[in-house]
Every structure is written in C-alpha cells, then in structure tokens.
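Researcher: Next entry: Polyketide cyclase / dehydrase and lipid transport (Microlunatus flavus).
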Amino acid sequence: MHCSVVVHRPVAAVFAYAADPDHLPRWASGLAQSEVRRDGETLLVGSPMGDVRVRFVGPNPYGVLDHEVTLPDGSATLNPFRVLSHPEGSELLFTVRQGALSDADLERDAATVQADLERLRDLLEAGPDGRAG
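Model: Predicted structure:
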C-alpha cells in the first residue's frame, strides 16, 4: 500500500530535511513520544518492548530514504520511502508493507504513515517561522 503527499518545496530541500535524523521526532509519530539515540549510523528508539533499531540508507542523489526497522526480537522490515520530483515541487512516497499484519492493522499503519507524511509536509511548507522552511 502506498501513502503519498505533494510538498510545495524543491526536492533537495525536502530530501535534506526528511533525511536528517534530528528532525524525525518532529514528524514521525512513532518517534515523537520516544527517546531517539544514535549508535553510529543506526537510530535506537525506546519502545515498551525494548530498543527498536532504525537504519537509513546513506546519502544519495536519488531521493531514496529507505530504512530498515529492526524490532527487539530481531525481526526486520524494510520501508521504501522516496522523495520524487513533482510538477508542484516534490512528492513524498512511502510504501507500507502488509507482511503478517491483518488487513485492519495494515489500514491502521497506513493511516498513521499518511498522517506522518502530512505533518512532514506541513513543517516543510511552513517556511522560516515553521522551523523547516
């Protein structure tokens, strides 16, 4: 399932902001309520079940922000995430994978991701007074 939003900002600006781990708690709801620590290139996010590890692909010129999330039990999920060129600026495109999720859980996760993308868009479009612009 794909979630997307159009952002009225240049691709480079959107990518730079979204790729910065320090900005994640501002827009990613799964990180907003947790302490985010760095372990080299990996982010450690506290959760009720223990530390969740998040590792992004390295810097690249293609708008790829894919990241792997590893749960404390060792299970990992790759989350494809892109910043694409769009006639109105940029498009954020995130793929939510079903895996072992029920249809209801998939819908819930997709709604959460959609809300996160909309929050990111709002931050990016807010301009100088909104911290991201």
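Model: Note for the record: The domain at 2-130 is CATH 3.30.530.20 (Alpha-D-Glucose-1,6-Bisphosphate; Chain A, domain 4).
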